Amino acid sequence: MRKFDSNPIDVTVGSRIRAARREAGLSQDELGKAVGITFQQIQKYEHGTNRISASRLIGLCEALDVSVFDILQGLQKNSPNHRTALDLSPEGVRTVAMLDKFSPARRRSVLKIIEAMDDTA
After folding, report:
1. How does pLDDT run across 12-38, given as a tens digit for each residue?
2. Which pTM was predicted?
3. Which of 39, 79, 107, 115 has its CA 20 to 30 A from that of 29?
């Protein structure tokens, strides 16, 4: 891993924070104000550029009204549903990050395209 690459776990946690923020209907600025940081820091967390400390993660989860378990679920290799960005190639991680930017309807459309391309079915 190059020095400036984001850790796949940080990217996954960030994307889950972003999804929870969007679900809560909050902007990055509003979430930042709720936890006492700037929207730029929220952006860095959401992209996995900066790691989130345990105390900050708890604060974010409280502001988003989600459990820490919801954010961290499945990241530990010995958990029953472990399948995360850790298992993906660099292209897979980039694909997941791009899909996360799409609306749910657009993600479903992309999934239908991918399913149509699947020759193993």
Report:
1. 899 999 989 998 999 999 999 999 999
2. 0.63
3. 107
